[in-house]
């Protein structure tokens, strides 16, 4: 693993990644969407991994590109529309419970 990758593995906040890779950002966008941005960044890296063995400047540029893309997704859209997390993917976050299941649950409590 590269030194750059090892350094980033220690980060926990979206702002750390954004600052380290030099991505300009609006703090309010990150405050509302930090987990979504990081998850989308991970998805972009999964779909288009940064090749090993690149010179550090090229590797940094590749990571920056994917993070910039993830950040922009939430500048132009929002978490509900982007559906990064499973809760938003499952019928837009709505779960249904049958009436029979609800009745059974209520009778068990009595």
Automatic annotation (TrEMBL):
Any matching Pfam family: NifW
The protein's name: Nitrogenase-stabilizing/protective protein NifW
GO biological process: nitrogen fixation
InterPro entries: NifW
